[in-house]
Amino acid sequence: MMTKTIKAKVFRYNPDLDNEPYFQDFDIEYESGMTVLDALLQIQDKYDSSLAFRWECRGGQCGSCAVKVNTIARIACRTKVDPNENLILEPLEKMPVIKDLVVDMAQTTFRLRRIRPYVARDKKPERPEIIYAEEIEKVREIRKCIECSACLSNCPIVHETWDYPGPMIIRQIARLELDPRDVEDRVALAMNESVYSCTTCKMCEDICPKKIKIPSLAVELLRAKAVEAGYPLAEGQQGFLDSINKTGRAVPEKDAPLLKDIETAEFLVDNPRGRVAFFTGCLIDYRMQNTGKALIEVLNRNGIDVIVPKEQWCCASPAFRTGDLHTAHAAAKRVTEIFEEAADKYNLDTVVVACAGCGKTLREDHRPFIEEGRGEPLKYEVYDLAEYMIQVIGKENIVPPKGEIKLKITYHEPCHLGRGQHVYDEPVELLKMIPGVKYIEDPYRNRCCGAGGGVRAGQRELSQKIANTKKEYIEATGAEMITTECPFCTIQITDILQETDIQTRYIPDLLAESYRKGDAK
Amino acid sequence: MNYKTILCDVLVVGAGGAGCRAAIEASRHNLDVIMLSKELLGKAHTAMAEGGYNVSLGNVDPDDNPETHFKDTITGGNFLNNQKLAEILVRDASERVFDLEEFGAVFDRTPEGKIAQRPFGKQSWRRTAYASDRTGSEIMVTLTEAIRKTSVRVFDEVFATKILLEGDRVAGVTAIDLKYGDYLVFRAKAVVMATGGAGRVYKVTSNAQLDVGDGYGMAFTAGCELVDMEMVQFHPTGMVKPESAKGRLVTEAVRGEGGILLNSEGERFMHRYYPEVMELAGRDQVSRSIMTEVLEGRGSPDDGVYLSISHLPRSIIEFRLESMIEQFEDAGVDIRDQPMQVSPTCHHFMGGIRINEESGTNIIGLYAAGECTGGVHGGNRLGGNALADTQVFGALAGENAAKFAKGHSHTGFDRDTVVREFEKLESMLERKEGISPADARAELTELMWEKVQIFRREEDIEYAVKELRRIEKEVVPNIKVDVQVKRFNPGWHQAIEFEHMVTTARMVAEAALMRKGSRGAHYRVDGDPNDKGYYNIVIRKGKDGEMELRKEDLVITSITPL
Fold it and tell me: What is the mean pLDDT of residues A193-203?
């Protein structure tokens, strides 16, 4: 059998000798099942025994070997080498390099010690101490952390500021808050450690070798406890929530809302191949009416009946994200009611969403809340538009858009679409169907734009910093247009790209434009 | 030769379960305690222990008690254990597990809210406390949290190379800072060795990369007595595939929870070897059974056997064996449906530095705890007794080291020895011609795996001894590092470790050669039936610097071998 060789570009730096870091290329003999750690050990054995990286257990249990693998930090021993892709290996971010891939962890240790990271007690426990399994069920979930620090390196907030201690450390605060034995006020501590700085982008959860759901089990949990304890939300965040409770919309009305503007709830086609209900979300209804119309048009053109219930309610994503569970749960019930009614009335079982934030909230927050509450499954499945088109209609059945759009286009993957709903490549596949589009892959396409988690509403300055980093990534692609699939991201990215020539577009809009252009020919 | 000297009252060398526990205990005595960690804090091999911690709480089986735990430990150890030490183990295991809970450990519970306990090999009752199958990780995380509460000064990525003596008392250690390559001397009134094991002297091992036997090597050189070095535990179930994961531990909890071993013919072969206890026979026994199946042609295609749990309820597997699911997922096997391929892997050194009931060694002021010590486990360690060992003897060593430090001032130290040690380390970098540490290590680990393994025979061990003596004379002094850089240079670290590895391997082989009969983990294919093996082999450095071995009577308190 021919051995396959891949290239590894490895970050090298010895500050004693080198003026600056450089990359060194190595040929790796690929073996099936090879991990990044295997590749590093091969380099050390074959080419350079002084190549510095950390490792101990080779089995995902010690958390020593986190490095950046093709821009994202992961533990090397559990990251498989892709034989079809070259490797780029770099040290973790935010931590000063000692040599090559070995970084100084002092800052992390310091930040950890600062939160008094141990169970604090005000008296000696009884021996034996009685603790029931239910009391520690949640602790057990988030306790699996092996402190590999990969999540710190990937965190868009930590990237901008050490004011936020990062996912791993926020998780430790939640672990202690959940521990019935700990007597300290961990909620106050979490407030002091900027728990409201997290955009809930889920990068930490995605790369966590122990799959710990840090945003929901730590960040949102601590926020809910903070709200419960009476800590006020930021003015911008509270404004959203008040508005939701009053009007069912997170933002005030400006131009005629989509739901009022459209004359009917029923957009039916001849010989439909399917039927869906359209959950508009606040921003498409109140701010991006054309996007809503575009979505209906695109689906109709593909033979799908679209039902748009005229009475809709906010998914309350801002409430789930910021910890106002009262508002959140009330909305979840109301939304479920509205759409189950529509499902019954129109005999459908599919709800399509074009807002990443709404889709994530319906799927990850509403569904478990409702299903656990009543012990019965929801009557409908939620799909993102792109996902619905590619997965349900099927790529081969999609009516090809014919109008040419001659542009270099890149894609921003909304956090709550990719990591939130596991919709990764479908939007790109749609883009590539448009004639004339030259798709440019952005290696940083899945990095947070800084808008989510209540951060744009609550901490505009921090949100801006994250957005500016995103802007650098976007500009580096050389694209003329960036597309995305979330109104929140669209607003944020449009803002930061104001001074540039790069346009920002919502994918349904672009698709509809291509269809219409095609008609005109 | 430039070096920096750092003073403390109690120095703990090693930061795994035993080291952390010793440091925590010592710090309770208003002393300045330094803990040297060869890795980052929390990354020690203890974190890789999976199954559990033996303690006769009787939470599940109320008839259990320390006496039964003692009996099981001695029988399991083939009567070679130092019974005074085993008594301490079973006596203190419960207080130490409660300590862990007080520090914040989260063990799985019984319906009554007590610590749950699972069955493990060769134990009369369900005795093994656990946190899913990541018990070691739970304990390591807990100790890390506890250390962060204390005043212990943690020097991580500092590698101790030599124990310093002043007369017959310990004076401290020499060390290098792995990060920057600086030479360091740590002077202390008392020193605790907690350096772990040496699985890495074997080619196939479950051990972390740092487990190369530094403690055994340093202790021997310093004149410590070591005991039972021939007793190396091969865990019956290590991973077989993929190649890079070979030897990784498949926890005994898999069998504890009901997993069965099958050969290539689908036969549950353990009934032919140990029908009463089947898969939960002693680790030495199960390992030999598996190897016999393989050698007689009933192994899997990759020379292992099958371990199956597909008959167990999914909920049990997912709740109690979560790491195993993850570990085999990486290898493309879903253990809920598919059998695991397993074969023995070098797992634990029962032997090590000889300690007394105070965890003290024969060198004044020098204490030791955990896997680097010998005597507690005899000829075979029960699964679950190692984690208990780290906590019981870690605390004991920490306490006694602290008491000693309270009553003594610092000794002087011999600067010439220090300079010579650092010159030796430096020479590895300066050497123009020589042998690379990677090649040297490959030769050593292959030799041990081939010749001093589960089934041992005279001619193999003789060959290994001869080779190891040669390696010690010819290779060790000629180790050459490729790149002459002191800042975080793994090549250099390996070069320094190599001498410790060779000394450790030699002790194993020399003791194995001396023991002519089979006993515990030491199984002689050509065993002398007249050698019942009821003695311990003690090793120390003789006047001429040569390895001296002698047989000693067993330390018996209540159970006399049959």
Answer: 97
Question: Does residue A126 sit within a domain?
Answer: no
Pick from B255, B161, B235, B192: which is nearest to B386 by CA? B235
Classify B532 as helix, strand or coil: coil
CA A257 to CA B128: how far, in whole Å? 64
Asked whether residue A242 is assigned to any structural domain, the reply reads no
Q: Dump pLDDT digits (tens) for B452-510.
A: 999 999 999 999 999 999 999 999 999 999 999 999 999 999 999 999 999 999 999 99
pLDDT given for residue B50 in this prediction: 86
Nearest to A203 by CA among A428, A510, A518, A470: A470
Spacing of C-alpha B129 from chain mean position: 20
Residue pair A50/B485 in contact (Cβ under 8 Å)? The answer is yes
Nearest to A479 by CA among A499, A501, A449: A501
Domain B238-344 is found in CATH 3.90.700.10: yes
Residue pairs between chains A and B whose CB atoms are closer than 8 Å: 174
Q: Which of A345, A379, A395 is the last residue of a domain?
A: A395
Distance (Å, whole) CA B50 – CA B237: 13
First and final CA of chain B: distance in angstroms?
58
Give the pLDDT confidence of A261-292 residue by residue, as tens digits. 999 999 999 999 999 999 999 999 999 999 99
Integer Cα distance of B419 and B537 in angstroms: 34
Catalytic residue among B21, B45, B187, B235: B235
Measured between CA atoms, the residue of chain B closest to residue A62 is B43
Q: Above 60 in pLDDT, residue A1? A: no
Contacts of A63 in chain B (CB under 8 A): 42-43
Measured from the Cβ of residue B431, the count of other Cβ atoms closer than 10 Å reads: 16
* DSSP-derived pairing of the beta strands A87-90 and A66-69: antiparallel
> DSSP string spanning B229-270?
TT-EEEEEEEE-SSGGGTT-B--THHHHTT-EEE-TTS--TH
pLDDT tens, B435-463? 999 999 999 999 999 999 999 999 999 99
CA distance B193 to B480: 28
The first and second tokens of residue B416, run together, are: 């010439």
Q: Can you tell me the mean pLDDT for A8-13?
A: 98
- The token duo for B346 is 């070098």
Q: Does B17 have pLDDT greater than 60? A: yes
Residue A127 in any domain: the answer is no
Q: Which residues of B539-555 are buried (b: 16+ CB within 10 A; e: fewer)?
A: bbbeeeeebebeeeebb
pLDDT of residue B268: 97
Once rounded to an integer, what is the mean pLDDT over residues A11-29? 97
pLDDT greater than 80 at residue B562: no
Residue appearing with tokens 């270099």: A408
Distance CA B464, CA A250 (A): 77
Substitution target from A13, A34, A61 for chain B, most B beta carbons within 10 A: A61
Q: What pLDDT was estimated at residue B244?
A: 84
Confidence check: pLDDT of A45 > 80: yes
- CATH 3.90.700.10 boundaries in chain B: 238-344
Does CATH place domain B415-523 in 1.20.58.100?
yes
Please answer yes or no on whether B488 and A128 come within 8 Å at the CB atom: no
Chain A residues in contact with B97 (beta carbon < 8 A): none
pLDDT in tens, B282-326: 999 999 999 999 999 999 999 999 999 999 999 999 989 988 998
**Tell me, what amino acid is at B480?**
K
A16:B487 CB<8 A:
yes
Nearest to A56 among B57, B209, B331 (CB): B209
Total number of domains constituting chain A: 4
Q: Please give the biggest Cα pair distance in chain A.
A: 83
pLDDT of residue A358: 97
